[in-house]
Amino acid sequence: MISVVIPVKNGGEDLRRCLQGIATQTLADEAEVVVVDSGSTDGSVALARSFGARVHEIPPERFNHGATRNLGVSLARGDVLVFTSQDAHADDDRWLERLVAPLRADDGVAGVYGRQIAHADAKPP
């Protein structure tokens, strides 16, 4: 099983796009989405659950980039872990399969990463 871990706070439409991209993946393996939400007030928790994600809520003051992801790992059931963020989304329906393929093909591969490309509608910082 592949576990996709996503830390979330007020993800809004970005989170919707992220979850839709994961939901449309073509995979040979089963996949789960684990969301660790740190105090969203915009409906992100309900949105994630509507996509079938397992959601764990923490207070905002407990959020820490590393610790929150580690919490997500502890809740995950998969033997392969994928980390993404609420504002990232899959480019196509084979993103997840291509990302994890090297892990399945070679016992010597311990980690892989994918390139991130800004959304066409991304706003400058």
Quick overview of this protein structure:
With 125 residues, this protein is of the alpha/beta class.
Tell me what you see in this structure.
- It is a single chain.
- With 125 residues, this protein is α/β, with parallel strands linked by helices.
- Helix content is 33%, strand content 18%.
- The chain has helices at 12-23, 44-50, 65-75, 95-105, and strands spanning 2-8, 31-37, 54-57, 80-83.
- The radius of gyration is 14 Å and the shape is globular.
- The termini are far apart.
- Average pLDDT works out at 92
How many DSSP helices?
4
| Major sheet details | 4 strands, parallel
Major β-sheet strand ordering = 3-2-1-4
Radius of gyration: 14 Å
Shape assignment: globular
Secondary structural class: alpha/beta
The tally of strands reads 4
Report the sheet-strand fraction. 15-25%
Low-pLDDT segments, ≥5 res: none
**Proportion in helices:** 25-40%
Distance between the termini: 36 Å
Oligomer: single chain
Q: Sketch the topology as an H/E string, one letter per element.
A: EHEHEHEH
Which helices and strands appear, and what pairs or packs with what?
Blueprint: E1 2-8, H1 12-23, E2 31-37, H2 44-50, E3 54-57, H3 65-75, E4 80-83, H4 95-105
Parallel strand pairs: 1-2, 1-4, 2-3
